[in-house]
Hints:
Elements: E1 8-17, E2 20-26, E3 31-35, H1 42-52, E4 68-76, H2 81-89, E5 98-106, E6 111-115, E7 118-120, H3 122-129, E8 133-136, H4 138-141, H5 147-158, H6 161-193, H7 195-208, H8 214-226, H9 228-242, H10 249-266, H11 272-297, H12 302-322, H13 326-389, E9 399-411, E10 414-423, E11 431-432, H14 433-436, H15 439-453, E12 461-465, H16 473-486, E13 491-495, H17 499-502, E14 507-516, E15 519-527, H18 529-539, H19 547-561, H20 566-572
Parallel strand pairs: 3-13, 3-14, 8-12, 12-13
Antiparallel strand pairs: 1-2, 1-4, 4-5, 5-6, 6-7, 9-10, 10-11, 14-15
Helix pairs in contact: 5-13, 6-13, 7-13, 8-12, 9-11, 10-11, 12-13, 13-15, 15-16, 18-19, 19-20
Amino acid sequence: MWERSFHMLTELRIKNFAIIESLSLPLARGFNVLSGETGAGKSIIVGALSLLLGERASVDLIRTGAERASVEGVFDIAERSEIAQLLDERGIDADEPLVVLKREIAASGRTRAWVNGSSVSATLLAEIGQHLVNLHGQHEAQTLLDPESQRLILDVFAGAVDAATHTRAAFDDLAATRREIADLLRRKADAERRADYLRHVAKEIEDAKLTEGEDARLEDEARRLENAEELRSLASGIASGIDGEEEAVLTVLGGVERHLSAIQRIDPTLSRLQELYDSAYYNLEALARELEEYEASIDLDPARLDEVRARRDLLFRLTKKYGATLADVIETGRRTREELDLIDSAGLDLRQLETRERDARARFQERAAALTELRQAAAQRIATSVDQLLPDLGMPDGHFSVRLTPTAEIGPCGAEDVEFRVSLNVGHEERALSRVASGGELSRVMLALKTILARLDRVPTLVFDEVDAGIGGRVGLMVGETMRRVAAHHQVFAITHLPQIAARAHHHILVAKGARGGVTTADVTVLTGGDRVSEVARMLGGDPESEVSRAHAQELLESAASPELATTAAATNGSAPAQRPVRRRR
């Protein structure tokens, strides 16, 4: 009865969360329900799951007396390559067919999260979680009132998600081209307005014929020219001291060489000393020559010094006006020339951009038109499909439609606004879903849409909380049967107080309040056989031990295996079956 490849949440482990001390919730494939007395902790379990999926954490959630609370979920993702790929892209080990998500809150306020033992952020935990679980409660059903959510639901049904993505990408490309055109026109207008000033700046900098590093070179040259006499005197003195009169260094070294030769004659092993001596002697000779050449190269040139000083002054004035450094001045000149050139070149650039803009606009319009075509075809189909399901959800006179209203201008989301409209009672005109649906009706419309989208939705586990709000009897049985059908393609987990829904489940879990160590806690039990009959009898409002109540419960449970018995069971429980009216679409 289930798809061959079935992926699901297999276990939810909760520790020290609210009133729960330690709880392991085993879930199975198909339709799972959680029931129990009011206040037993059903909503707490949903809250724990929400925390695991990235909801905001609070230290108030930690059980009294505990240091930390934790929630852990084990998911079977066998053959779900896209989830394994997502984990691999995030650097998380995904070799096993199981994924374990865990979140912890410490009394200090610190929260931590893990995926397969790897520490992750709460944001990444939520990103992965949204690929594994879809949680629908009264709050989540409110997303149906959001135009963006309505548009996304229609696009999913239409198989138009890629078309919508391509339309947005084409819009972004067109918008980027238009921004380039606007920027070019702005810069051209700005350049034209400042043209005289720009010409002055460009001319002043270009006439200076600046070169990189020129300021440092001028500084060095000025220092040499200003100290030319002293430099020559010092160079001459050093050269004379090395290779000059009798007391010069090289003359003295001549005597040293004689003594060194005498030592080597006595001890030939000291021949290496000769090499050191020769090296020192020749280096000193080279140093003396270098100093003589340096002395000869230094000119006493007052005229050149004046030129250098004048050039330095020019560079100083330019850096004061156009930049802190010479490199900044050169860059200012380059940018200024570019702005001036823009006045002449903007026409050609603008024509090229306008050609790009025309192509981008045509491509965008083409993709938006294709998206509109898909939406128009899908709007009628999804409306018909929802109308067929509404009677099964207790809204026999319900009518659903999708209105596509052309927008004044095509935008990133296409050429039309999407609005879900309903008429849930005879004689009432269609209105926007947000104006006519109660919380319970909204949840059932969401359930109808989920049923239709079940085969398209890749999220393996659907959680329904409060979907039974405001309904009972036959309608509850219909809602339960609908969720049972959805469970052929997804794992479904519902929290309910209605026996009609609980009886349709494949797997029934009871949550009950107890006490440990004088502190209230909650425990769960998987119900089978007589225990499940007792719980359904309790939910029916009778004595769970009376034969009449148990007989009613047994009949309700048997109707799950034999849908043709459902109307009999519904009648037995206070709601006479009514024939579904035949309605024409309005």
